[in-house]
User: Fold this.
Amino acid sequence: GAAYGEGSLSSRLAGMVSKVPHAGTEVSACVIDLQSGRVVMSHHGDLPLVPASTQKVIAMAIALLELGPGFSFTTTLASDGTDLIVIGDGDPGFGDERLAIGRGGTIDDAFARWGEALKSSGMGSVVGDLVLDESIFDEVSVHPTWDSSDLGKWYAAPVGALNFNDNCVDITVRPGSRGGSPVRVNVVPDVDVIRVDNRCKTGGKKDPTLHHVAGTLDYTLKGRCKKKWRLQAVSFPDPGLLFGEAMRAKLVSHGISIAGKIRRERVRGTDGALPTNLKVLANNETPIADALSRAGKNSQNMFAEALLKRAGFARMSRVGDAMPVGSWASGSLAANAMFERAGIDRRGLDIRDGSGLSRENRVTAKQLAGLLAWSHGTPFGTYLHDSLSQAGVDGSLRRRMKKTGGLVFAKTGTMRGVCALAGYVDGESGARFAFAVLFNGYTGPSTPYREIQDRVCLELFRAAKR
Assistant:
C-alpha cells in the first residue's frame, strides 16, 4: 500500500521512463505490485512494441504451463530388428556444449552411451538404415519472418525435432608447419557432409575469418592465423541431417557400423504410440529446467523456439487434435490461450516466434508484466523466476545492476533500435514487483536505454526493501 509512498514511487518511475534521449523513441512500461496486484506505474503500457528477446518470457511460460516443471525432453533409441530408429522430441539440449560442460562431459556423451547400449543388447552392427522420426515438429526449421541477414549466423540456427550441437558448426584453426602453409582445421561435429574450403594461411597479420552462405553446407576459411583460434559458431541448415551424421560417426568410432543409409520417416502413430515391433534400447533426457535456463539466462534462441513448438504440440495433443504437430502456429495458439486464461487483454499481441528474433512480434509492457505477475501465482512461478538472468550474478545481466544484491531476475532483449527488459524485483520474502520496460525506434547504441531500465530496477529494489 502507501507504506513506500506509492504515489511518489509511481511518479518517480514514470519520470524515468518518459525522459528518453531520442525524440522518436517509443516507450511502453509497466510495473505491478505482486502483493496487492495493483499496477504501480503504466507509461504507454498498452502500446504494442517489438519485444526482442523478452519474447522468451512468453515461450518459457507457455512451456511450463503446457509441459510442467517436471517435464523432460526424451529422445528415444529403438530398433525393429533391422533398422536403428531415433524418435525426436524437439530436445534443444541434446549435444549442447554448455550443458555438457556443466555435467562434466562432452557433446557426444549421449551417442557414446547409445553405443554401449547397442553393444550390450547384442547389436554390434546395424544391418538396415538409421531412421530418424522428426514428426513431432513441422518441417519449417527457420522462421519465414527472420531477417535474411541473420540467417546462417549461430543465433538464427534452425530448430528441429532432433538437434545436435545447437545445430551449429564449430571450427577451430591452428597454424600449419611453416609460414604460408595452410592452417590445420578442426571441425565439430566432424561429419563428411560439412564441406570446408580452407584458404586460410599460417602466419601474418590478419585474423582468420569464416564465410558461410545460409542454407548451404559450404564453409570457407580465409585470412591468416598465427595462434590457435576458435571461430564463431555458424549454423547448419538441416538439424536432422547433422544429428544423424554425427550419431553415425560416433557409433562407427565405437566399432558399430550401420550398413544402410540415413532415412527420415514417421515411425510412431499420430497418437504418439510406438509400433509394437519396436524394442526401445535407450532414452536420452534433458530436463526442462536446463532448456529454460539456456533460454532465460543465456538467451539461447534455438532453445526458446524448441520450447514454444513443443508446447504447441502438447496443447494440440491435450485438446484432442487428430494430427498434433509442434509448429510456430501451434505454439502461438497455445501462448495466446495462456494470455486468455491469465485474463490479460490481448489487443496488439502478435506472437510469431519463441526467441524474439522476428521483428513482427508485438507485445505491450502491460501484457509482459501481466504474464509475469500471473505466472508468479501459479505452481510453476518459481521455475520461471529462477530461469531468468540474475542481475550481477549470471547470464545476460551478470555485469548489470550489481547494487541490487542479486534481487533482480529479468530477461534482456536487444536488437537494432530495440532495448527491452522484463522480469521481477525481489523483496525480503521473494518476488515483490513484476515489470517490463520496452524501447523501440531509437538510433545508435542501446546504452542510455539500459541505464534507464537499471534505474527503474534500482528504484523498485529500494521500494521492495522498505
